[in-house]
Amino acid sequence: MQFLDTSHGSDILGDLVDVILDNRDYLSEVDGSIGDGDHGINMAKGFRLYSESIQGQSLSLAKAFTTLANTLMGSIGGSMGPLYGSLFLGMGNASKDLDTLDARTFGDMLSAGLESIQSISDANVGDKCLLDTLVPAVMDYRHAVDDDDSFTSALQALRNGAERGCESTRELEAKIGRAARLGERSKGHLDAGAVSCCLLLVRLADSTERHLERAAA
Amino acid sequence: MQFLDTSHGSDILGDLVDVILDNRDYLSEVDGSIGDGDHGINMAKGFRLYSESIQGQSLSLAKAFTTLANTLMGSIGGSMGPLYGSLFLGMGNASKDLDTLDARTFGDMLSAGLESIQSISDANVGDKCLLDTLVPAVMDYRHAVDDDDSFTSALQALRNGAERGCESTRELEAKIGRAARLGERSKGHLDAGAVSCCLLLVRLADSTERHLERAAA
Amino acid sequence: MQRIINDPDNVVDDAVRGYLRASPEFYAATDHPRVLKYAATTSGKVGVVTGGGSGHEPAFLGYVGDGLCDAVAIGEIFSSPTADAFLEAFRVADQGRGVACLYGNYAGDNMNVKMARQMAEMESIDVKTVIARDDVASAPADQREKRRGVAGEIMMWKVGGAAAARHDDLDEVIRLAQKAVDACSSIGVGLSSCTIPANGKPNFTIAPGHMELGIGHHGEPGIEVVPLPDAKAMADAMCDPVLADQDFTGGDVAVLISGLGATPVMELNLLYAHVADRLEAEGITVHRADIGNYFTSLEMMGATLTVMKLDEELKPLVDAPARSLAITR
Amino acid sequence: MQRIINDPDNVVDDAVRGYLRASPEFYAATDHPRVLKYAATTSGKVGVVTGGGSGHEPAFLGYVGDGLCDAVAIGEIFSSPTADAFLEAFRVADQGRGVACLYGNYAGDNMNVKMARQMAEMESIDVKTVIARDDVASAPADQREKRRGVAGEIMMWKVGGAAAARHDDLDEVIRLAQKAVDACSSIGVGLSSCTIPANGKPNFTIAPGHMELGIGHHGEPGIEVVPLPDAKAMADAMCDPVLADQDFTGGDVAVLISGLGATPVMELNLLYAHVADRLEAEGITVHRADIGNYFTSLEMMGATLTVMKLDEELKPLVDAPARSLAITR
Ligand SMILES: Nc1ncnc2c1ncn2[C@@H]1O[C@H](COP(=O)(O)OP(=O)(O)O)[C@@H](O)[C@H]1O
Ligand SMILES: Nc1ncnc2c1ncn2[C@@H]1O[C@H](COP(=O)(O)OP(=O)(O)O)[C@@H](O)[C@H]1O
Ligand SMILES: [Mg+2]
Ligand SMILES: [Mg+2]
Ligand SMILES: [Mg+2]
Ligand SMILES: [Mg+2]
Fold it and tell me: Which of B21, B80, C132, D254 has a Cα-to-Cα distance from D188 of 20 to 30 A?
C-alpha cells in the first residue's frame, strides 16, 4: 500500500505556487474573454504572498494548506479568497492529525475541501465555475478508490476528472460570477476558475505521485 | 454728394444677419483650426436672436445697431458679446441723431465703433484678432474720405482694408484669446474674429452702396 | 490608461494612506490596513459597519462619519474586502451593543461577511446584517434576493446610521436599515466603460451613441443597450422600471441621482429636472433630492436613479444630521 | 459624445432648471434666467457675487450658500456670463452695503464685469472686484496680472464669504478676499481632454501616456507635455512650481486638490499623500486639506493643486462655517 508522508507540505504546496505563478498571464487571458481579465493577477497575488510568508519553512501538509487558506482569505478578498480559502482550509483541517495519507484518507481530504467550499458558495456543477472542475475530479478519484484502484491510479482519475470537468465548461452558459452577464455569449470559452482549479488539482496529483514514487524508491 | 438714409436700419442689419448665418459653419471651421471651433455658433446665436427680436419692425440704423449690441451683450456673453456689442453700440450712438449719413459722418460712426471696442479690450493690431481687420478697414476708409474720394470709393477702401487686414492674420502669431496658447503653431491660419469682422464690414459696405445707388436712381 | 497612481497593484493601499492624511477629522487607522474607523465615534451606540470593493468613491469610506458608519472594510478595486477586514471592522465598531453590517448583495461580499460573522461569533461580537438589493434591473421583483445593491445603500447607511446615533438598539437599527433599503428602487444607465488600473484596459464597451439601461456598478449588463436618448427620454426610461417596482404614488419620496464618475454634475441636475417633472406628473412629492457623485464606478459615464418611499418613521432619519466626506446634513 | 442633455444649445438653461428644482434650500430664481441667488441670505451684509462659464461644476454656482456667495452669474459652457447677468447678480446681492464681485482672470469675464460695473454705477450699486490670478503656470510671478484664476478662487470665495458673513464692510471683504487669493499658488495637470456639447468633439488632445503640466481650466496649454509619471513624481512636478512661487516654509498652509472631472477621487487622495509628504519634508504644516471635485473642467482627467499660505487673520476665515452644494464646514 502507498502512503504520502504529510511532512512534505512545503514541497507539495511549492508546486502549487509554481503552477499558479507560471500560468498567471494565461489565467488572466482566459478570464479576459468572458470575465474581467484579472483571475491570474488575483490568484498569483495570493499564492505569492503565501510563498513569501513561509519562505524557508518546512511545513506539514495540514499546516501548509491552512497557511495558504488564511493567506487567500486574509489577503485577496473578492470571491477567490473565500472560495479557494475554504477549499484549502477544509483540506488542511482534514489532514491535521495524520502523519501519512493513504489513497482513502487523501480522498477524505479532497472531499472535506469540496464540502468546505460548498458551505460558502451556492454554486453547482453546470454553473460554469471552478466546481465544474472540482466536483468530477473528486468524484472520479473517490470512485477509483472505491474500486480498489492504487493510489497512483486514483490520482490519474483525479487528473482525468479535473481535465474533463474543466473542458466541460467550454460549452456551458455561465450562471454565476461576472460571465453570467453574458448569457449565451459566455458559451465557447473555458471558465477561468475551472482552469485554475484544474491546474491546481493536476499539479497536486503530479506532486503527490512524485512523493509516492520517492517513498517507494 | 451721396447720402445714406438712416431709416434703412432693419434692411442693412438684415444683410449683416444674413452674412453671419450663411457663414456659421465656415466661421466655426476657421475657429476650429486654432480655437475651440465655436465662433460661428456664438455669432449666429446672437445675430439670430437679434433678428427674431425685431421681426417685422422697421428700425433706424441707430436703433438697429443698438438693439443688435444689446442682444449680443445680453445674450451671448463670452468675449464676443462685449466686443461686438461695444462696436455696434458705439456705431449706434454715433448715428443716433442723424437722419442721413454722408461719407464723413459714416466714417465718424465707424471710428466711434472702433473707439468703443478699444475702451473694453486691450487688444491691438498684430495680436491676431478682429482688430486686425477693423483697424486697417476704418483707417483706409478715413484716408479715402480725407482724400475727398466719393462715398462709394471710400466704401471700397473699407472693403480693401478689411480684406487686407483679415488676410494679415494668417501670418501672425496669436497674442490674445484661445489661439495664444498655441504660440508659433497659431501661424498659418486666419483668425476667426478677423474673418467675421471682415465679412461684416464687407457686407456693410455692399449694403450701404446698394442704398446709395437706389437713392441716386 | 490615464491614471494618477504609482504601482497599479498598490492603488488601494496608496489611496487609503492619502485619505488618512487628508481627513484625520474623519478617519483613524486600525490594526488592519484595509479598515478605517471613524475618528470621533460617540460611545455607547450600536456599531455600524459597511464595506465593499474600491472604485466606487465616495462609497464606501466616504460614508464613515457622524450619523453614518463607524468603520469600513476596503476591498481591491471592484472586489470584496477580505473576511479579516470585515472582522476587524466589526471589532473596532463594537461597543458592546452589537454591530449592524450594512452592505450590498455581491457574491464576494456575501461570502466574506459570512466568514467574518463566524469569526466574530467566536469573539462574542453580535453582528447582524442588512444586504442591499435595490437595483431593479438586476432581477425581477419576485426574485428580489438576487438583486444587486446600488445607490440605495446610501439610504440604508443614512437611516441605519441615524438610528444608531440616537441610540436605538441593534434589532431596531437593523429593522430600520432594512426598511430603508426595501423602500428604495434604483436603476443605472451606463454611457461609457471604465478601466481598472491593474487590468489596464476598459472593462467592457459601450458603443458611442448608445447607453446601457440597467447597467451594474461594475459594468454588469443591464436590460438593454439602446441608442443614447435625450435627457428627457432617459429620465423616462429610468423612471419607468423604478416607478413600476413599488407604489410610490400619493406619498413623499427621497430622490438620489448619483453620477457614475465622469458625467459632469450639471448633467445630473439636468436629468433631475425631468425626473422631477415625471414624479410631479404622477402625483409623487419629492421630500428631498440629493444630486451628485455619491456612488461611482471609477470613470464610467452615466448615472443611477434611486427613489425611496418615505413614511413618518423614515423621514426624520433621512433628514437627521450627518457629517462625512460624502454627505453632510 | 456621451452626454445627458437635450438640445446641446440649451444645456445651461436646462441644467439651471435642474439645480433650482433639486436644491431649493440653496437656490432661488431671479429676474435673469442665468442668475441664481442664495435662497436664505442673511440681511444687512455685504453681497458676495461670483460668476463664470459653465462646465466647472460645482464651480461657480455650488459656492452659493451660507458663509460663501450670495449670487452667481452663469455663462455658457467655458464662456463668460453676460454683463446683464453680472448686473442682475449685483442687484440681488446688494443690501445697501455694496457688492464684492470675486471672479477669475479671463478676458470675457473681465469685459463683462467691467460693463456690468458701469451699469451698476448708474443704479448706485457700489461694486468692488477681486480678480483671482493664482495659476502659476499661466505667467511668471512678475507678470501676475496675466495669470488665470483657477481653484484658488474657492479660497477667495471662502474667505470673502466668511468676512461678509461676520458683517465686515465692503473694503474689508475686498481686502481679505484679495489677501486670500494672493496667498494661493495653484497648478493643474491635464490627463485627457473634454467635449463641449455644442461643439461635439474634444476641445484639444493629450496623447495617451502623457500629461500636460500647467494646463488651464479650459485646456489652455501649460508649461510642457511630458510622459505620464507616477503619482509621486506628479506630486513633485506640481509642488515644484507652486512652492517656488511663494515662501511657504515655516508656516501653516491650506491645501486643496481638485479633480478636473473624470479622475476618480481615490486618485486625488493618493496624489495628496505625496503632496503631504513633500510639504512635510519642506517644513510646511498642513492646517487643512480639501480633496475632491471642487472646480472641474467637464469630463477632463487630471487635477489641480492649490497651496494657500495662512496667517492668524486668514485661518479663522478659512475654517469658518459654510454651507453650500460644494463645501460644508
Ligand atoms: N459564487 C461562485 N462560486 C464558485 N465560483 C465562482 C463564484 N463566483 C465566481 N466564481 C469563479 O471565479 C472565477 C473568476 O475569478 P476572478 O477573476 O479571480 O474573480 P472576479 O470575477 O472577481 O474578477 C470564475 O471563473 C468562476 O470560476
Ligand atoms: N480680448 C480680445 N480682444 C479682441 N478680440 C478677441 C479677444 N479675445 C478673443 N478675440 C477674438 O475672438 C475670436 C474667437 O471668438 P469665439 O470663438 O466666439 O470665442 P471663444 O474664444 O470664447 O470661443 C478670436 O478669433 C479673436 O478674434
Ligand atoms: Mg475582478
Ligand atoms: Mg476576474
Ligand atoms: Mg468658445
Ligand atoms: Mg471659439
Answer: B80
